[in-house]
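In response to the reviewer comment on reproducibility (Comment 2.3), we provide here a single inverse folding case reported in full, input and output, so that an independent group could reproduce the run without further information from us. The structure tokens appear first.
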């Protein structure tokens, strides 16, 4: 079904991924649920192995879910992924691009995959925006980590995505470069109305960029809210303290744990967005 102005651009229901006896996303009680509206940033927080990257991989169609549904831009990704792939993109420092090719060659390959018109002009435009023009002729393998991150982001923005999925976009970057990239992403979102789904271990980054945060543990969403709401709910100074409290103690704030419910999140029109799995507080 087509997306409308009032529909979430990402809609996930009952999403589960199992590998034989290992449940990577979801639990015995069911899968995870969440919505993301256009023009907003939704963050997934969790320790390594919590299920963040697996969730993103299922949204992209790289992994098939064991159960559940995924809709991006109003389309069922399990049946009609081809209808929306040209409108989404992904970036991660953990996914290597071809290092022997020059930056321009790498971007031309990906621009061709998206069948972009005027590829050279679009490459010049996005590299100018990302301050990457100076190394267009250099092999990717000769670049610094910060320069490669700019190229990865340029690749992800070539098609002007309406949904941008980011897995640790500023990992291993110096503070100045990381801050520059965050500013650019926020500006891109303000200009285009794109939705961003962000998986990150950088709590300050999440506090700055995300309006809605889901905290994952052992494949389930155990609590959710805005950064300010979560900080207040747990009586902490910042989101990092909230994260450490849940990771080390395993218990939730009373409001989140009561009856196994998570605090409701207001949607665009004041509607309450569906919350995470049943029994999340029991994890």
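Designed residues, in position order:
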């Amino acid at each position: 079904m087509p997306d409308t102005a009032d529909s979430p651009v990402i809609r996930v229901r009952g999403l589960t991924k199992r590998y034989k006896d290992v449940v990577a996303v979801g639990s015995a009680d069911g899968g995870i649920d969440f919505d993301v509206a256009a023009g907003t940033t939704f963050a997934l927080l969790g320790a390594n192995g919590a299920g963040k990257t697996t969730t993103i991989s299922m949204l992209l169609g790289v992994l098939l879910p064991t159960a559940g549904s995924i809709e991006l831009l109003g389309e069922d990704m399990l049946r009609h992924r081809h209808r929306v792939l040209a409108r989404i993109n992904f970036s991660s420092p953990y996914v290597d691009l071809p290092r022997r090719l020059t930056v321009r060659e790498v971007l031309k390959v990906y621009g061709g995959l998206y069948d972009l018109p005027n590829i050279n002009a679009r490459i010049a435009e996005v590299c100018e925006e990302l301050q990457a023009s100076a190394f267009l002729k250099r092999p990717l393998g000769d670049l610094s980590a910060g320069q490669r991150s700019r190229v990865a982001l340029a690749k992800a923005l070539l098609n002007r995505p309406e949904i941008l999925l980011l897995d640790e976009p500023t990992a291993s970057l110096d503070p100045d470069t990381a801050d520059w990239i965050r500013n650019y992403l926020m500006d891109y979102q303000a200009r285009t109305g794109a939705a961003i789904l962000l998986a990150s271990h950088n709590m300050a980054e999440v506090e700055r960029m995300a309006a809605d945060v889901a905290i994952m543990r052992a494949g389930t969403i155990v609590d959710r809210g805005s950064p300010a709401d979560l900080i207040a709910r747990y009586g902490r100074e910042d989101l990092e303290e909230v994260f450490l409290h849940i990771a080390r103690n395993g218990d939730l704030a009373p409001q989140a744990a009561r009856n196994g419910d998570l605090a409701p999140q207001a949607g665009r029109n004041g509607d309450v967005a569906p919350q995470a799995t049943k029994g999340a507080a029991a994890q």
